[in-house]
Each structure stands twice: as structure tokens, then as C-alpha cells.
Amino acid sequence: MNPAPRGLGLADPERENAVLLAIIEAATSGPGVEPLAAAVARVITEATATDVCFVHVLDDTEPSLTLAGATPPFDAQVGTVRLPLGTGVTGWVASHREPVVIPADKQDDPRYVAIPGLRGEQYTSMVSVPMESEPAGLVGVLNVHTVARREFDDRDVRVLRTIGRLVAGAVHQARMHRRLAAREEAHGRFAEQMVAAQEAERQRLARDIHDGISQRLVTLSFHLDAVRTFLDRSEGQAARTDLTTACDLVLTTLDEARAAIGALRPPVLDDLGLAGALAALARGLPDVHVVLDLDDRRLPEHVEVALYRIAQETLQNVLKHAGAEEVEVRLDVADDAAHLVLADDGVGFDPATRSRGYGLASVRERAELVGGTVRVISRPGTGTTVTVTVPLDSQPNTQPNSEESAENT
Question: Where is the composition biased (Polar residues) (predicted)?
Fold first, then answer.
């Protein structure tokens, strides 16, 4: 009768180091927990001539383990096998943080629980070790199985525990990366929802002013004109003077109401889109030559509103402070980002001091709300260029590009 093979076949220190290096390489291959677990399982079975390896990872929200990686054909079970802590050999190892070696007759071990999808009855010997490290703590359990009886010794357990510590650190980093990505995504959604809510409220207020105050003022103006026409045909110079003053006040108030509506929600965005709105904004600058290069593809509403408001504030600052003769407004839209460039040939300023009332803090705040960034290039006497970049998260645009984007200046 042939003796049972001994150990993992890692008696050679050089071979042991090669396995650990392979595990380190697998552990640094990427931030995903499942790809990491699959790579580790494959490296372990190939390096140790074992038959199957399972990587069970501790769940984030409840005291249980989920199969995160396995060698074929059990990779199809990844994500479907879950074990409460304390259940089965794997659950016992997680609860006690101690390794378990079963050379044979695992069904006789009171801790063993058969999992149909993993076909444990086909494997004779197994080693189960906790995956834990500092500061990660317990991350999961690593199991190795063989069909033929295998005598695993203390050295084998030590090597597997070392592998477990390496994997634990990598899994911990992958989880932190995943949580950070989820938090950033949630922050992005919150910012988008906040901008949308603000604009919805502005739109509601603008509609209320338009449908209520503005309409009443228009009606009042008609009545005052009718009365003034009647008085023109008869006596009443004092009354005519008062009515003329009242009509002037109505027209002034109506202009103010329309200005308030535009400030709350720019109707030009709905009518012309961002490109048309930017063109109208720039051409409204008095005594300034305007150069336009605008991509007319539509963007998500919250991005269009943010870019319009940024352009509105920046161009107003140009009018107040720059003394510019020419202003360039360029909008470039790519698959992954929108770029708004506002450049003038005015007096310039020192961005480090945020001087001359340019309102850079407000511009940056609006950009950050939609995940964007702002770059300001200026110095006294050389003009100012403000570049705003907003990521689009690969969202498709709904209209074709009508003209080529200009080269960067």
C-alpha cells in the first residue's frame, strides 16, 4: 500500500517563496474582490498540486461568509454559497480563527456540513485556515481540498496562513476601494439630485411669477392704457399725469419680474439648448467682439444648467473687471467629458489672490456640484482663460455635432 502524499509539496524554500510571490502578484492585480479571490484560488491549486481551492469572504453587513472565488468547475458557484459564522468547518474556522486539518473521513467530524454545490464528499483531505491581518482583522477563510489522501503538516498550515494574511490585506484594500467608489457615486448622485431639485424649485418660482405677477401686471397695464386713452379725450391733466406715472411703474415692475424669471430659470436653455444659450449670453456683452466655437450636442440637464451659470457669472465678471475687447467662448463635448473655455484679452489678474472680484469660489462650487473642475490661467496684462471640465460618465449625447472642435489655445 502506497503511503499518502505528504504536504503541499513546498518543502523547498525557493519553491515556497515562488508561491508567495505569485500570491502577491495575484493580490495586486486589481481592486475587485471576486477577481482577486479567483486568481488566488488558481495560484494555490497550481502551485501546491491540490485539486480545488475555495476562498470564502466575510460579508460586510452580516455575520456570514460568501464564496468569492473558486477553481473550476466550482467558479460557477461564486456568490451563491453562503455560510453563517459557526456553520460547517469554514464557519467554525471563521468563528474561532484557528486552522482545521482533516486528512480523511471529514463526514465524521462534527463540524462538517455538506454543501451540495461544492461536492465535498468527492474530496478526502482538506485544510481550512482563517484569512486575517492587521488592520483588516478577519476577512474570510481559505480552504484547500484533495481527492487523494494528503498528510498536511504544520509547515503547510503556516504557509497557507501566510497566504491568508496576504490575501486578507488585498481583500481589505479591495473593499475599501469599492466602498470609496460607492461613496463617490452616491455623492455624485446626491449632487445631481440637489442641482435638479434646486432648478425644479427655481422653475416653479419662475412659472409662478410668470403666470401670476407678470400676467396681472400686463392686464393692469392694458387697463391703465385704456383709462389714459379715455382721459385724453376729456379734461383731467392731473389724472393723466398720475396714470402715466403708474404705467411707467407697471412697465418697470414687469421688466424686473422678467429679469427675476430669467435669474431663477433661464428660459433660453429650454428654447435654444446650452450652445444657443451661451451664444446669446456672449453676444449680449456690449462693445466686445465675441468668438464662438460651440458644440450643439445636448448634455444632461444639471450639467447644462451648471455650465450656463458658470458662463453667466464669468462673462459678467469679464464685463465688470476685465476691460476686454474680445471674448472667446468654446464648448467641446466628448464621450467622457464636456469642456467649457471662456477666454478674454483683458487686463488679467493674479488667480492666487482671487482678486478683482472674479468670484472664482462660486465658479468652483458650481463645478464641483456636478463633479467638475476649474482651471484658471491669468496674470496681470495677459487676459484670463477659465476652463471648466465636467465628466459625463459616458452618457450618450442626443444630437449630432454640427462643427469641429477648435484646437486648444
Answer: 392-403
